[in-house]
## 1
Amino acid sequence: MDDGTHAAMPAAQGGKVRGGRGRLGMAIAVFGPGLVVMLADTDVGSVITAGQSGVQWGYRLLALQFVLIPILFIVQELTVRLGIFTGRGHGELIRDTFGPGWAWLSAAGLGVATVGALLTEFSGVAGVGELYGVSRLITLPIAAVALLVVVITGSYRRVERAAIVIGLFELAFFFVAWTAHPDPRALLSGSLDIPYADKDYLYLAAANIGAVVMPWMIFYQQSAIADKRLGPEHFTAARWDTAIGAIITQLVMAAVLIACAATIGRAHPDATLNTVGDMAKALTPFLGTQMGNLVFGLGVLGAGMVAAIVCSLAFAWGLGEVTGYRRSLEYRPFEARWFYGVYALCVLGGAVVVAEWPDLVSLNIGVQVMNALLLPMVLGFLIALSRRTLPAGQRLRGWYYALVLAVSIATCGLGVFGGFSGAGLL
């Protein structure tokens, strides 16, 4: 049973966002959920997927990265609408609209995606430590404690700021792409050469789609907006927050793909990148050992840590919205024991599993394909909620509804077809 978390929150803790003077002050106050979730979107699994795409197919999957920008915005913009105009998280809205059975189904999909994400994030963090000869038995406990401290000792706003600072380390990948000196003509011709009939290509295309639209992103952003208590007056700024984040995350993916295509893909097109170490070592002849380790280490550390925060919080929020336990970063740990407990269990569980079974990192691309296979359920709920729960003025209708529906069907179709084809099931 829901305990009215947000409605009953003390004004000193959970009051609405208040910006400074004018539009700039409003934007600064509102910005955060979209940027954080987009920085988390470029997680360790996504980085390795983009890198493998560049190695195996050169620039042939580059155009897809840019095509996915409006798709990513369309999907996450719906979570902004739902969070702002209903004031409720994604799981809670599914439960109240379609019943507890469907809510538990969505939570199960979220749980599967969260487990897969955490394995890749902690594997990436462990891989960064191993670049410098530090055992994962040291790096993983340090990372887990840091993630617990960031969330347990801070309000939503402090957690958001910490996540943004951590995630900005991903900008190091732009330096990698610049130092790779890609040939502009090869880049353009390669991006236009698309082998539609190749099953291996379709499989990696599905992985790239799954690396962009993930279940925990939808749960996180909608719940974060509800937790931040954004209202209709914040809608425009929140959409800009989402749009800027969508552009940044796909530019990071493109940068990784370009760097690997221009270096490893050109010299060793048969190379297989399953770990952060594989990528850093393969780039060593081009960037130098110290520079390769430092730049990739910073980028992956930022990607892995911010994604671990986001997907763990998404599951803690989502499960709370289905079961009804207290769920807000504005509560102290003992006031919302289940919420913080689920978050801690996700973080500690992920660290322990990766410490015990280090070879799980090889599942990176498979995890992204799994996300693509979950898309029909995820986007189906999102569109249905947008049609049924929003106020009349914000409800999907007309040409925009047709566009959202067409984009969602095409994205789901390509993701599912590519995943099944690459696995040899079609």
## 2
Amino acid sequence: MARMALEGIKVVDFSWVFAGPLITAYLGDYGAQVIKVESHSRLDLTRVSAPYKDGISGVNRSGSFPVANNSKYGITINLKHPQASALVRRLITWADIVVENFGTGAMERLGLGYEELKKMNPQIIMLSATIQGQTGPRSTFAGYGWNTVALTGIGNLTGWPDRSPVGTLQAYPDSVVPWFGVVALLSALDYRRRTGKGQYIDISQYETTSHILAPLLLNYMSNNRVATRAGNRSPYAAPHGVYRCQGDDRWCAITVFTETEWQAFCRVLGSPSWTKNEKFASLKGRRKNEDELNRLVEQWTINYTPEDVMARMQQAGVPAGIVKTNKEIFEDPQLEHRDYFQRVEHSEIGQIYQQAWPIEMSESKANVRPAPSLGEHNEYVATKILGLSDREFVDYLGAGVFE
């Protein structure tokens, strides 16, 4: 079997919810040895979030927790216990990387700030992913990804122009921050390989999420244009929308950017007389008469299933796609072909599906393993990874260090 890309890299994961845990899950999928540190007194919110397997609640039954905690060992430590410091020192001495995404100052209050970790392990790499970073007038700003959706202005961009902001269904920063975190950690590992020095990585979720809005920010810097809610419309394309199709609540998205695409679009519709109207002859005209254009497009799409609309448009070179349900995504033959949903065996809830990586590396395959139950690997980590004797483990357990 080929050596995994990150085999030999050791990670201590103090993070919770999504932004931090996804970083370490990605590392674990490619062979890094990741130990997730949890506490019974402060459960990861995703452990107590629906949906639950078979509708039965429990700290090991959530469908949210496995999404961000695959390929990890799970231990429970009472970090406030007076005897915990010696155990934590073993963890830090063992590790290459430490990841956390608590509020600014939380790790320092636990005696686990970067300066303290450096004393235990001078080559340690530490990453903190807080809402607005470790410095600045709002560095202590508390919140979650949904707060950041509003803070970055994404909430002001999603929705209809005549209605209030709607935000996003999920906390968008949780889908953005981990990729920056993984790249930063790989860069730090390469730097340490070349120099022998670790370093501290300070990630601002506010800044990483703002990064994806670069075109809109540049438009304001250059043209003083303030972006607002526009529904499904785009200044660069028309038609540009989601159109009702045959069936119950069935839709297809269609986008026409270029004149070549417009001509192909018209041919797919059978070149009805309205497509030859002068007011639709240019993008400017189509944008000006977009309400009427959208009604006319939907008069055609309503006669076909979204699959048929998509196939006809795609065959003609016009971008189009079905608006899918989660059921349709799970049953998608393209994702099945690429083994995107993988079956793993969870220690409590049995067989579940785990999303795999959206990339394939020819020489280093990902290996997705199930997320741990709460404290599942206390003994294994203590005795097999950290080298404690059975007696030492029992003493820690009896004292309440391992919760």
